[in-house]
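[job 0412] stage=fold_complex status=start
inputs:
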Amino acid sequence: MKNQAYRMAMLYDFYGDLLTARQKEFYDLYYNDDLSLAEIAENYEITRQGVRDIIVRAEKTLEDIEEKTGLIQRFHQTRATVSTLRELTSQIEAINRDRLKDGELEKLCTQLSEAMEDLERE
Amino acid sequence: MKNQAYRMAMLYDFYGDLLTARQKEFYDLYYNDDLSLAEIAENYEITRQGVRDIIVRAEKTLEDIEEKTGLIQRFHQTRATVSTLRELTSQIEAINRDRLKDGELEKLCTQLSEAMEDLERE
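[job 0412] stage=fold_complex status=done
writing structure:
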């Protein structure tokens, strides 16, 4: 479970709203607020195993959705391509700085970088 | 239903594998193979209304998922940003062609365009 916290946070970000209210609540407390199973159990007056079952089922639901849609995988590919775009833009900026010194080109590179920041926020 | 064919194709592309086997089958025949409700009904020996109910329920499921996750909306934003990146790259290419004539810059612009093609395939 918690050894995969990054992956779980990503799954939750993408598909969390497809969980039931209770699954969401427990998942959130466990992964985002970092409560232990025992702490959640105590707060909700159910067994530790009961909490565990709900979270494990939620994880399975999220993993199944990703396995079927592949949208997080697609997202990672996009991020990798954006890194390539950033690197290429840096190279253009460097050429301009060292050799071409064209103000208009510099401005376009800045705009490219801004658009890539948008991409990374999306 | 069919007046929203593009939207429906997109929903199916993103979330189709989350439908039941039967929902997928009918949705596919109706939207992708363009069969009528009556034709599907005849092939499967059920009523036209029965087919309609299954497809309408499938549509609702897909719409609910998008409403909760917003991933198609995010995808459209990404596409719009990629258009901006393309436009900026074209402007850099034009400056280079008209004024700077730098071979290395030209090569980088080609690589930028290729990376954006990757983004549009993802």
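[job 0412] summary: Residues 2-69 of chain B form a domain with the Arc Repressor Mutant, subunit A fold (CATH 1.10.10.10).
[job 0412] exit 0
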